[in-house]
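Figure 6 in text form: structure in, sequence out.
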């Protein structure tokens, strides 16, 4: 097989943006490997609008947003292979993949960009009691059935989980004539964006029951009813709070998991919080020349941020190759620590010598905080204290660090991000 400087695993929004940025940074030897039969990833089934407000300053549907990047890939002549499954990434960055045309093949690469996206948490991980009848779908599967395959999963629907896909499918099923009876959420807060709660539930009179979960599924051949109950602070059902809903469909929207089987097998260090790779300021993993971006790194709520992050990964992969594929020196490395409400940060470390003039640090919180402050400490000195009316787990937060700030603080070893009340 032909060799390439940069191999990108995944042809969704992250892979496409990384490829375009790498090409524009001056590298012509790029290959995208995509397991589906077309580029665009999950965006192809997201026919609702709301994409592109940050990137293109206009409101687009998912397929329209994807096509903007697909067109750039085509116009720039970037190579890609469809229906191609990547099987392994070796320590020396040799990528093993297979498809019908080429069979099993290997591509030696100088840099690899991981852009595999994420998958939904399956029913088996949720420990829901009851039979295993037909009529139980993940929200993403239902979305594909309705928007691409043209099938309606059912007519009377209960949704467990208030992630963004579940909220959007509550509206989509309603528009297709189904009756969505309730959205139950285990946590005391929604896992989705506030705008989706308003536009997808409130506007259609669909009830959202927080601190509730499914405790029973009826029906052996097909779902006939679902029972939900309120849960206490220990997340266990409270006896006597059960409510039964007759239905023929149960949709599960209980969280997304970064798709990192390949990353783990390659020896990439993983974060127990995000389930994605641990990366530095260049979005580089512990394996030199292997970068990660998009939902494979940590689950985003806006695709615009995926594209922005992937662009950095593409540019940094080119920079790594231009610098002779050398392992970075760790002389001037600052650790990023998330604590007191902040769950994690991406990146986890910063090499000041290699960072750009501005660095976006993204993080999520573990609870809902009202009238609180996002605070940043350089060692023990507080340098940022930004008031926020509300901070919620469903919405990603970010801070911007300036290179000049870090270089002026001699001997800086640790940057701490936390949530404070005053």
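Output sequence:
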């Amino acid at each position: 097989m032909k060799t390439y400087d940069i191999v990108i695993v995944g042809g969704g929004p992250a892979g496409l943006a990384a490829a375009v940025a790498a090409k524009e940074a001056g590298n012509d030897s790029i290959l995208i490997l995509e397991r589906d039969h077309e580029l665009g990833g999950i965006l192809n089934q997201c026919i609702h609008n709301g994409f592109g407000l940050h990137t293109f300053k206009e409101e687009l549907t998912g397929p329209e947003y994807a096509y903007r990047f697909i067109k750039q890939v085509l116009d720039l002549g970037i190579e890609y292979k469809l229906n191609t499954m990547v099987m392994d990434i070796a320590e020396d960055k040799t990528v093993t993949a297979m498809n019908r045309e080429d069979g099993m093949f290997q591509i030696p690469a100088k840099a690899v960009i991981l852009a595999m996206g994420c998958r939904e948490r399956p029913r088996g991980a949720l420990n829901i009691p009851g039979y295993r009848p037909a009529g139980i779908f993940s929200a993403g599967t239902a979305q594909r059935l309705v928007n691409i395959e043209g099938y309606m999963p059912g007519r009377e629907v209960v949704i467990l989980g208030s992630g963004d896909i579940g909220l959007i499918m509550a509206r989509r099923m309603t528009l297709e004539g189904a009756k969505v009876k309730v959205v139950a959420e285990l946590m005391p807060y929604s896992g989705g964006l506030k705008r989706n709660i308003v536009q997808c539930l409130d506007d259609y009179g669909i009830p959202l029951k927080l601190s509730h979960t499914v405790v029973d599924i009826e029906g052996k051949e097909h779902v006939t009813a679902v029972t939900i109950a309120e849960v206490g602070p220990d997340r266990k059902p409270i006896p006597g709070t059960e409510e039964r809903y007759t239905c023929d469909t149960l949709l599960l929207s209980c969280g997304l998991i970064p798709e990192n089987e390949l990353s783990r097998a390659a020896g990439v260090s993983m974060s127990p919080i995000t389930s994605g790779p641990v990366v530095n300021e260049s979005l580089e993993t512990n394996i030199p020349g292997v970068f990660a971006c998009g939902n494979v790194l940590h689950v985003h709520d806006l695709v615009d941020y995926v594209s922005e992050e992937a662009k950095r990964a593409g540019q940094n992969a080119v920079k790594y190759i231009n610098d002779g594929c050398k392992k970075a020196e760790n002389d001037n490395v600052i650790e990023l620590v998330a604590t007191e409400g902040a769950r994690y940060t991406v990146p986890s470390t910063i090499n000041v010598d290699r960072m750009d003039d501005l660095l976006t640090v993204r993080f999520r919180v573990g609870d809902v905080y009202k009238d609180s402050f996002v605070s940043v400490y350089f060692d023990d000195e507080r340098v940022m204290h930004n008031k926020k009316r509300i901070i919620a787990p469903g919405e990603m937060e970010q801070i911007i660090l300036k290179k000049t700030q870090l270089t002026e603080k001699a001997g800086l070893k640790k940057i701490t991000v936390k949530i404070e009340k005053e």
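Caption detail: The radius of gyration is 22 Å.
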